[in-house]
Amino acid sequence: MHTRxxxxxxxxxxxxxxxxxxxxxxxxxxxxxxxxxxxxGHPAVPTxxxxxxIDGLSVSYREAGAPGAPVVLMLHGWPSSSAMFxxxxxxxxxxxxxxxxxxxxxxxxxxxxxxxxxxxxxxxxEIIGRFVDKVGIRxxxxxxxxxxxxxxxxxxxxxxxxxxxxxxxxxxxxxAESPWFGPIVPYWKDGTDESRRKAGEHYLTLDVVRGLYxxxxxxxxxxxxxxxxxxxxxxxxxxxxxxxxxxxxDIRTNGPVLENAQDYLxxxxxxxxxxxxxxxxxxxxxNQQRYREVVPNAEIxxxxxxxxxxxxxxxxxASWVHDFLGRAL
Length: 329
What we know:
Blueprint: E1 47-54, E2 57-64, E3 71-75, H1 86-92, E4 97-101, H2 121-134, E5 140-144, H3 147-158, E6 163-168, H4 185-190, H5 193-203, H6 206-214, H7 225-235, H8 240-250, H9 255-268, E7 272-277, H10 285-289, H11 291-294, E8 299-303, H12 310-328
Helix pairs in contact: 1-12, 2-3, 3-9, 6-7
């Protein structure tokens, strides 16, 4: 049994709607759907791709849904971006106002040089907190996966009355032991340039990114290879690899934030849904079941898949999230 004080390690995470086309002759008219229907049975709502300036930093985000509807804030994992949520955004946007930002160094947000902008979870939490203020979010349901939890918990703790519900998908609340973290441990211990170089040679590779997707998955033919290929390509952009290494190094500092998040959830007991792959190489099913230690009434669904559960179980997860939010908000 791992205690809240144990130092092990943690975490760190498509398809587009089919568009029918055809010609209309002078003699016959063909009516074609404008967009794919979501799971709610309503036509899908367009997703907007926007940016917002946060102290001179351009933060990219996806937004869909009607202003005034309950807000779902979606925070991505490593080494992904808001792109990992593209299908889920479409499915939720008929009933909710969805925001999914890219962290600095990820997706289409700026990647400032690390000498001018620290890549730490405290810094990301501060930026996403300002993002929430700037786009006018007052309260939200948080959908967090992987890095998204450590960022989202900071936003939650800084403004404790904003969280209405929590959805955790392969997301840490307790530290987890995993061989996946082995190559970063020397860097955690000594912080030297040599240890950083070796960590980069391991983690900034296609094999590692692909492994997050395929490990623990029953049927890998359900996975779109373009997902991990595009994420690997993003890591090769100038500055992006260094940003990721800085954040992987900063994992070691997150014990107090996890403990504070546990205390917050235990005291407030917000509606909580856990939808995770039980074969996750980072946060296995036993780790995800621990949410009930602090939120006894948490609704938990463990899928027979790995870390990137949305990649092969997106429709099932969307169905559970729709049902949960319909009751929680």
